[in-house]
């Protein structure tokens, strides 16, 4: 089985619609794909309706969190999307995205970048606006070459010159809320140092003690020594280890299935989840 547990669609900051994403996942030879848009479940229904036969959909979200001043992303899988407290927190994060993006645009303008809000809004479309949309505007303007190049202290990285804060969950609350909704939590790309400051291992140990299920190890932002170190940490803390592409369509160079999760780990995730269940494909409508 080929299993990719971290992807994004146009419901947040990817470039594939949810229907296109599942079609592309099947074409890439995946057996299982998780749709984990930022702080939203809005793409799940479309993805499920278009799911090709032979492909299983894992519903999820990537939750924006912050601990001790350091931002982190928490992947939440197979939770009840209608659980009211978790739904309310996701809504608070989403509602803060537009003011935050407008602040980043203003800061860029003050730095001499001729970016306009209308440009960022056009790029975001119906998705939840975020830093990758602002980064794409910088690429369009020729300020940086790639989206990844915008995530530096010079521009949009945490604490960068044009960075702006938004409402974010305390990760201990995120773990509690996801578990209460029957879901499973995995710390996304925990050692992605090129994105900015990362959470220390002592904090990961605290999260593990609070019920964190796993950490994402095989990821494009982790080199081989980092992956080996994270596997050792996971063994010490009794955490599951996952691998995934963090696919964003054409917004990033990584392809679907470039990094994958061991089937035994996937099986354990599904065994722990009680809020929702993987959706087996029965032949959908195809890409929209």
Structural commentary:
It is built from eleven helices and eight strands. Strands 1, 2, 3, 4, 5, 6, 7 and 8 form an eight-stranded mixed sheet that branches. It is α/β, with parallel strands linked by helices. A hairpin with a 2-residue loop joins strand 3 (56-67) and strand 4. It has helices at residues 18-27, 44-49, 84-95, 97-110, 117-124, 131-140, 147-150, 171-180, 201-209, 224-237, 263-272; strands at 3-7, 32-35, 56-67, 70-77, 184-187, 214-218, 240-243, 279-280. Helix 5 crosses helix 6. The radius of gyration is 18 Å and the shape is globular. The model has no long low-confidence stretch (mean pLDDT 95). The relative contact order is 0.20.
What can be said about the biggest beta sheet? 8 strands, mixed
The beta-strand count equals: 8
Compute the separation of the termini in Å.
26 Å
Question: Regions with pLDDT < 50 over 5+ consecutive residues?
Answer: none
* Strand percentage: 15-25%
Pairing-aware structural class of the strands and helices? alpha/beta
- Helix % is 25-40%
Q: Radius of gyration in whole Å, from Cα?
A: 18 Å
Helix-strand pattern: EHEHEEHHHHHHEHEHEHE
- Total helix count? 11
Residue-averaged pLDDT: 95
**Large-scale geometry:** globular
List the helices and strands and how they pair.
Elements lengths: L2 E5 L10 H10 L4 E4 L8 H6 L6 E12 L2 E8 L6 H12 L1 H14 L6 H8 L6 H10 L6 H4 L20 H10 L3 E4 L13 H9 L4 E5 L5 H14 L2 E4 L19 H10 L6 E2 L8
Parallel strand pairs: 1-2, 2-3, 5-6, 6-7
Antiparallel strand pairs: 3-4, 3-8, 4-5
Helix pairs in contact: 5-6
